[in-house]
């Protein structure tokens, strides 16, 4: 980047630091005195059940400090003297449980380097011993009744807290009250003894919870002698009196006592008095009331004040009083404090050589602390030449020298404790020392703030500072430079300078301003079906230099989604989050975070999971009546798709137990439904909700609800009246469902009568749902009604329906049948309707039958093709499509009803006119020359009339298929199947169009593309070359099945190891397929996977140096599937073999004729060739076997002579002659196929 010093920006800053303000903070890179950073706060109580005890002492300094310890003021080595090992890099050590008693004492840690020594505060390690009561024999205490008793506990010392209990040996607590109570010292005091106080098992228990120990003192015995008079050695039963006695204090002794305690502790004052009657204690404070925080305990004998303050000191008085007198005791309470730093401990200082240094150590406390000083852990030694002066709590170093650098210890003590502080005093002069790494690189996102560090140590500091110019730039006191809203122009190098009287230093900082990270394609809110996969996308832009740090993180409701695992349903990939098999737990806010190590951008989307509604709850029945009930429910969660309706289902236990059926649908905003029920059923109900997602689960079923039996409330429906026979009437109906019976004993009453003739109904009672009425007149109208009933009554009055008795066949045929031929394939037929009386049933319509008798093109008869069309309704004309042109037909019409067809009308014979031919099946481009091309084609399968010739059109095209002017040639001979086009352009591409024509017109065109060649290239440029390639192949033939064709040949000796290729094309699709190379010595090739009954074009191709030339080309048609078995059966018959011999003889005759014709150089017509191949039908084959027969026919491909075929220098005339011969053979083979196709 460009060097950008702060001066060049006008922003120079000179760093000035001062150590006068605040504590001494010297970077560790600078040589400095030790400073203790971690030390154990005492005291440490070593409990035996704890595993170990740490004595911590850690310090910083440069050079690294070394450590030593003292115990009780004596130097020790933890390893040799205590058997423990110090930790590495510090002075700490750990004491493990064991012989702990040897470790008890006061410890102090010293951390030293060559500049000085720092000292820790004293750490007291207390190893408590197990508290025990001494074993002693205690004499019984004998007192008179009314006298005081003191039972001393004298509990052993131990780790607080300690609790004292007085109990019997049986662990029963000694009952305490105003007369008997335990003092704060643990003794049990009895103000005046009574006879009941006599017992031998007063036990004092001391419990130490920290060490989990309870100890008991030897049981003590108290004997209280009664004050009753004795007569004759026995107590008098008369009344007696305990002498009254004025109070005196058992605790405390004397009239006045002094109590000292520390601020914050609990004040405990106690007065326990003896006397009779039992004295009452009253507390007061001289000159003022008792503090509000004062509490009275132990039946008023103990005064406590928590967290005592200085204002709580003063004189407190307790007064014990009874009816005889009183006594008082005065407590002089003094609240004191241990030493505390005031306001804080002395701080380290960094001073310039020759300056005066004041080290002040102020502490407060009560009594006032005594201040003592040490240097590097040793007492001060002030000789005559010393520049040090100690003034009470301050040390003054006059004209400080480097050797005055040391750690000065200040100790403040009173009777409540000692505090110690270390003050590091360094007297040095140094040039500025840069502590921030030079050439530190900083990166910031454009528009954000950046702070570049410039940490420096300077002593002495420089008094001059310069501020930065510019609103976006500012310098902090620690030397850091802040740039607000950084821009791309801020990238570069920055220099920080620092100077003092000892020298100058500088560092360089490098700043790169990066493009911000921005989400450009945030995730979109999503409504997703439960059970499907949800997908959220998040695409972001970021600075390309941060590509290694860039990542996209997804979180759901603030919790980050971990990467994909086998158990996880979350899949994360390149900013996309997929949630597999979504359920309700997946709904929430999904946040995409695109982040680098500099910035991040977030975008959130709300995923709402849609699901079917939950089952309704609390389904209850109300308004229960005989045949109705009201159902109410509480809808379940609709899962973010409003409920559209509720469906009520029922189940009954009598007819179809366990099967639930729909009863009623209720709108989604309604939560009750009044249900109309059938009688004599035991119902239960359930409800489920439907929303836009689907149907939810059903609710729990209700309790059973049983309805009373009743008469049927409906009659049968869908009554069907039919006459299957002429003299009967079949009546059927849809029976009532079992649940609609409403009671037992269901049956039906069938009533009928002739319409308009009879008044009386004939009736039958039936239990089935069908009935046949016999001996009825043919096709007479009847009235019928059906009523249901059960053992509880009749159903409602039934509706009357009308029907007819049985039908019979029509007796008359349509008359006056006439036809009108509209075009070559469409016919209009008309007739006179038959009379209604002759129908003898419901009119169904009319059938038109037609039969193709023959083709007008061929005089021979063809197999009859029968067709018919049905025209429903009462009509007198119809249109008949799908006729064949140039044919003779016969047509009849008949009427029909439900019973069947009536007689046919008289037949009508008609002829269809001549039409245009079908498309020619194949058009090939052959023998391409420099200025000419030969076109070869086959006649159409169906001429639809008398073929008059062909229309050939062609035009010049280029690679983009742009068309030139259309040229036209009329081929007037119907027998012509090839044409030589001359006068074409050299190396030009043409599109050829050919259509066959009759007297009516020309049929659809077939297109083919071809190109002329240059004189130097002896090959065709057409996509499928068909020039005659001279090779010695003989006897080329084919065997055609339904799904395969076998091509066979005989190769000459010269061609035994040559290669050829077999190509074939489905003529409907127009796509060529070419085989792998086939060795000619194999003598055959099988093409399989063909479609039955389909026309294919087959070619043999030879590979030469210049081109793939067509050796042979033919059109074949596969047989119809399923008829091959007929061939196998027929071919074994003698007559069939004889017929095949005749066919072979005819074929040989054709070959001779072809050979003679070729040698003459002439052409023969298609008609002549057809005459040589009479139709199979004329040879006596019946309709059933026609088309099933298949034979291995020789293919009449061009067979060039060996002497000419092997020559390599033949001219174009030879090729043209050879092509001509191939054309003749090709057409002859096609004619044979054509005849077979007609048979099919």
From TrEMBL:
Q: Which domain of life is it from?
A: Eukaryota
Q: Which UniProt keywords apply?
A: Cell adhesion, Cell membrane, Disulfide bond, Glycoprotein, Immunoglobulin domain, Membrane, Repeat, Signal, Transmembrane, Transmembrane helix
**What positions does the domain Fibronectin type-III occupy?**
615-710, 715-808, 813-915, 916-1020
Q: Which GO molecular function terms does the record list?
A: cell-cell adhesion mediator activity
Task: Tell me the membrane topology, using the record's own terms.
Answer: Single-pass type I membrane protein
Q: Does the keyword Membrane apply?
A: yes
- Residue span of region Disordered: 1173-1240
Q: Where are the transmembrane segments?
A: 1135-1157
Under the heading Pfam families, the entry gives:
Bravo_FIGEY, fn3, I-set, Ig_3
- Protein name listed in UniProt: Neural cell adhesion molecule L1-like protein
Gene name as annotated:
LOC109908548
């Amino acid at each position: 980047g460009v060097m950008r010093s702060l001066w060049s920006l006008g922003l120079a800053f000179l760093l000035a630091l001062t150590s006068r303000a605040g504590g001494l903070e010297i970077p560790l890179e600078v040589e400095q005195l030790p400073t203790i950073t971690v030390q154990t706060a005492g005291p440490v109580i070593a409990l035996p059940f704890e595993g170990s005890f740490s004595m911590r002492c850690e310090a910083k300094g440069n050079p690294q400090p070394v450590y030593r310890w003292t115990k009780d003021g004596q130097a020790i080595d933890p390893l040799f003297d205590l058997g423990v090992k110090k930790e590495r890099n510090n002075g700490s050590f750990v004491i493990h449980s064991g012989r702990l008693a040897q470790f008890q004492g006061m410890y102090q840690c010293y951390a030293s380097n060559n500049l000085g020594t720092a000292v820790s505060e004293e750490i007291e390690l207390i190893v408590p011993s197990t508290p025990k009561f001494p074993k002693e024999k205690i004499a019984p205490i004998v007192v008179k009744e009314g006298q005081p008793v003191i039972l001393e506990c004298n509990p052993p010392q131990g780790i607080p807290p300690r609790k004292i209990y007085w109990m019997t040996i049986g662990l029963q607590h000694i009952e305490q009250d105003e007369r008997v109570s335990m003092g704060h010292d643990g003794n049990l005091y009895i103000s005046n003894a009574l006879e009941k106080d006599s017992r031998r098992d007063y036990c004092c228990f001391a419990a130490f919870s920290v060490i989990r120990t309870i100890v008991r003192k030897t049981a003590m015995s108290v004997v209280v002698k009664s004050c009753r008079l004795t007569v004759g050695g026995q107590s008098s039963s008369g009344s007696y009196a305990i002498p009254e006695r004025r109070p005196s204090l058992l605790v405390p002794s004397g009239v006045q006592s002094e109590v000292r305690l520390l601020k914050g502790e609990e004040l405990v004052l106690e007065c326990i008095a003896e006397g009779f009657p039992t004295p009452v204690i009253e507390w007061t404070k001289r000159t003022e009331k008792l503090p509000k925080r004062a509490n009275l305990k132990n039946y008023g004998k103990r005064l406590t004040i928590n967290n005592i303050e200085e204002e709580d000191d003063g004189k407190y008085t307790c007064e014990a009083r009874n009816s005889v007198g009183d006594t008082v005791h005065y407590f002089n309470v003094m609240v004191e404090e241990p030493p505390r730093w005031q306001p804080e401990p002395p701080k380290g200082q960094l001073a310039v050589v020759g300056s005066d240094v004041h080290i002040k150590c102020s502490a407060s406390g009560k009594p006032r602390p005594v201040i003592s000083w040490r240097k590097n852990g040793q007492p001060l030694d002030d000789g005559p030449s010393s520049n040090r002066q100690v003034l009470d709590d301050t040390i003054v170093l006059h004209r400080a020298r480097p050797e005055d650098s040391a750690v000065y210890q200040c100790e403040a003590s009173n009777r409540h404790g000692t505090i110690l502080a270390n003050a590091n005093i360094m007297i040095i002069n140094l040039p500025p020392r840069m502590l921030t790494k030079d050439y530190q690189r900083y990166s910031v996102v454009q528009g954000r703030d950046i702070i570049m560090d410039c940490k420096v140590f300077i002593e002495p500091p420089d008094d001059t500072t310069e501020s930065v110019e510019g609103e976006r730039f500012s310098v902090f006191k620690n030397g850091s430079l802040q740039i607000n809203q950084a821009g791309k122009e801020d990238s570069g190098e920055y220099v920080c300078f620092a100077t003092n009287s000892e020298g100058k230093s500088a560092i360089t900082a490098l700043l790169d301003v990066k493009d911000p990270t921005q989400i450009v394609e945030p995730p979109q809110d999503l409504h997703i079906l439960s059970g499907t996969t949800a997908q959220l996308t998040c695409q972001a832009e970021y600075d390309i230099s941060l590509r290694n740090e860039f990542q996209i993180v997804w979180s759901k409701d603030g919790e980050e989604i971990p990467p994909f695992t086998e158990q996880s349903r979350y899949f994360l990939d390149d900013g996309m989050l997929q949630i597999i098999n979504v359920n309700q737990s997946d709904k929430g806010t999904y946040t995409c975070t695109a982040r680098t190590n500099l910035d991040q951008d977030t975008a959130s989307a709300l995923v709402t999971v849609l699901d079917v509604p939950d089952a309704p709850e609390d389904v209850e029945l109300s308004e229960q009546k005989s045949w109705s009930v009201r159902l109410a429910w509480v809808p379940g969660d609709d899962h973010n798709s409003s409920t559209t309706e509720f469906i009520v289902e029922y189940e009954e236990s009598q007819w179809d137990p366990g099967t639930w059926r729909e009863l009623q649908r209720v709108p989604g905003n309604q939560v009750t439904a009044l249900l109309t029920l059938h009688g004599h059923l035991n119902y239960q109900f359930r409800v489920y909700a439907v929303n836009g997602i689907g149907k939810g689960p059903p609710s729990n079923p209700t309790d059973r609800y049983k309805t009373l039996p009743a008469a049927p409330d409906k009659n049968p429906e869908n009554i069907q009246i039919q006459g299957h026979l002429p003299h009967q009437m079949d009546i059927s109906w849809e029976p009532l469902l079992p649940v609609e019976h409403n009671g037992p004993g269901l049956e039906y009453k069938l009533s009928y009568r002739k319409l308009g003739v009879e008044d009386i109904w004939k009736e039958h009672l039936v239990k089935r749902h069908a009935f046949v009425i016999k001996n009825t007149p043919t096709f007479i109208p009847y009235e019928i009604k059906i009523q249901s009933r059960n053992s509880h009554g009749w159903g409602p009055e039934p509706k009357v329906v009308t029907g007819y008795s049985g039908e019979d066949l029509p007796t008359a045929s349509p008359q006056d049948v006439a036809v009108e031929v509209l075009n070559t394939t469409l016919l209009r037929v008309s007739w006179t309707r038959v009379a209604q009386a002759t129908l003898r049933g419901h009119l169904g319509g009319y059938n038109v039958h037609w039969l193709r008798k023959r083709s007008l093109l061929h005089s021979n008869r063809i197999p009859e093709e029968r067709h018919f069309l049905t025209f429903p309704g009462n009509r007198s004309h119809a249109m008949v499509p799908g006729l064949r042109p140039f044919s003779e037909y016969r047509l009849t019409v008949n009427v029909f009803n439900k019973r069947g067809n009536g007689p046919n009308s008289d037949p009508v014979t008609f002829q269809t006119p001549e039409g245009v031919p079908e498309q020619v099946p194949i058009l090939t481009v052959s023998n391409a020359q420099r200025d000419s091309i030969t076109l070869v084609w086959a006649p159409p399968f169906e001429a639809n009339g008398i073929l008059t010739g062909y229309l050939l059109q062609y035009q010049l095209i280029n690679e983009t298929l742009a068309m030139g002017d259309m040229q036209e040639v009329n081929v007037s001979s119907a027998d012509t199947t090839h044409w030589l086009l001359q006068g074409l352009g050299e190396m030009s591409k043409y599109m050829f169009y050919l259509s066959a024509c009759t007297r009516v017109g020309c049929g659809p065109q077939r297109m083919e593309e071809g190109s002329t060649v240059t004189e130097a290239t002896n090959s065709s440029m057409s996509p499928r070359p068909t020039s005659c390639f001279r090779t010695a192949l003989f006897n080329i033939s084919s065997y055609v099945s339904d799904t395969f064709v076998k091509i066979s040949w005989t190769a000459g000796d010269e061609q035994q190891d040559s290669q050829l290729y077999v190509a074939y094309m489905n003529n409907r699709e127009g796509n060529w397929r070419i085989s792998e190379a086939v060795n000619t010595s194999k003598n055959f090739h099988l093409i399989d996977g063909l479609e039955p009954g389909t026309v294919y074009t087959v070619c043999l191709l030879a590979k030469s140096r210049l081109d793939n030339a067509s050796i042979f080309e033919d059109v074949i048609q596969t047989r119809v599937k399923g008829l091959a078995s007929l061939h196998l059966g027929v071919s074994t018959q003698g007559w069939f073999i004889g017929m095949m011999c005749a066919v072979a003889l005819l074929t040989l005759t054709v070959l001779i004729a072809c050979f003679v014709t070729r040698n003459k150089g002439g052409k023969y017509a298609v008609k002549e060739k057809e005459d040589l191949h009479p139709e199979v039908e004329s040879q006596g084959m019946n309709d059933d076997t026609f088309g099933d027969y298949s034979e291995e026919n020789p293919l009449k491909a061009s067979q060039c002579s060996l002497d000419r075929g092997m020559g390599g220098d033949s001219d174009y005339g030879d090729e043209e002659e050879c092509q001509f011969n191939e054309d003749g053979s090709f057409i002859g083979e096609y004619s044979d196929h054509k005849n077979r196709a007609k048979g099919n």
